Amino acid sequence: xxxxxxxxxxxxxxxxxxxxxxxxxxxxxxxxxxxxxxxxxxxxxxxxxxxxxxxxxxxxxxxxxxxxxxxxxxxxxxxxxxxxxxxxxxxxxxxxxxxxxxxxxxxxxxxxxxxxxxxxxxxxxxxxxxxxxxxxxxxxxxxxxxxxxxxxxxxxxxxxxxxxxxxxxxxxxxxxxxxxxxxxxxxxxxxxxxxxxxxxxxxxxxxxxxxxxxxxxxxxxxxxxxxxxxxxxxxxxxxxxxxxxxxxxxxxxxxxxxxxxxxxxxxxxxxxxxxxxxxxxxxxxxxxxxxxxxxxxxxxxxxxxxxxxxxxxxxxxxxxxxxxxxxxxxxxxxxxxxxxxxxxxxxxxxxxxxxxxxxxxxxxxxxxxxxxxxxxxxxxxxxxxxxxxxxxxxxxxxxxxxxxxxxxxxxxxxxxxxxxxxxxxxxxxxxxxxxxxxxxxxxxxxxxxxxxxxxxxxxxxxxxxxxxxxx
Length: 471
Hints:
- By secondary structure, the chain is an alpha+beta fold.
- The protein has 13 helices and 11 strands.
- The N and C termini lie far apart (108 Å).
């Protein structure tokens, strides 16, 4: 009796061995795909995740029909899982292809996804209410045939591939898809017309598809990572070039002490500042802020550096400096705008002249009466109109006075409650640090801004600050 039982078990396992191997393979492949997706957070990961879900559902369903596995579960749970997964496998497949389709194909995949979800809900609902496992299975099989046919057509026709898929074209994927599509059409037609189809064909077809698409998905992820790495390298070079156009130090002007802080939000920034020392007693200070962030803003910031060559002979006239910049830059801004502040200081006579274009006000700390003045002399932003006149202010300075030029990245950072750092807090920091040097104030202000922002929130704008002390 014992020998007979062992023989029966051995025959049962031998008959089910291909399905056991296939189911285990697909489940393990799904787990590997999930692990890769969790490690490599790059473009294409969503496709890999849904491909893993699709693979896992297929593998689990394969294992459920094996008596040695299925008998471990209550009969009702085994039947429910088998029916549910048989319907949901198409939903996972549609979600996977949704990640790599574009244009009209994406619309069609969305339609198929909606149909798959509807049939899944109806099929599972029919099983729960009446116990019928096959009530909507013919329609489910028909949707599988339609989806497989569409996939096969798109893969086989290069113009359609290039137009509607964001996957790289590989012979491996083409062969795998053809094998899978042929098996899927054959298998689902056999289900619809109720004739026998060897189970191993379904496993082999899906395995060919899985390996080809898994290879393509990984190739896409690796290619995207290489592209991102190339972009990172280019951004690093761009950052070095941008830093090269900024002042390498502060001007050593007589009777002035200058400090500057420059903190780009990204690798490259739209903020720009420049010093124009004419001699020991005459220096120009320019601070600019290009609308937007990143590479486009940085390119315009570099244009400002070039455009500054047009101010020869008028550096001591801030309004004329801004007018010339506006004229030179207008045709190249192409919808971008630039705010600029320009200050000219004569440290020997302790006088200054100031003009701005849509820029935050200059702050002037009066040491004599401990008063903080907001000096506004604003015209239109650069880029609004080609020809514009800018107002100009004359300032009388005294020993101990302090001047701040800055971009709106200083006042606009928000805390967790959504409150901006603001003008009042900026003025408070200035008042509380009036006895420190220009460099100390600059460093302290940057620290205050960083502590104001939540540690979980990235820097929200480029920050540029120039502090000038009159000795």
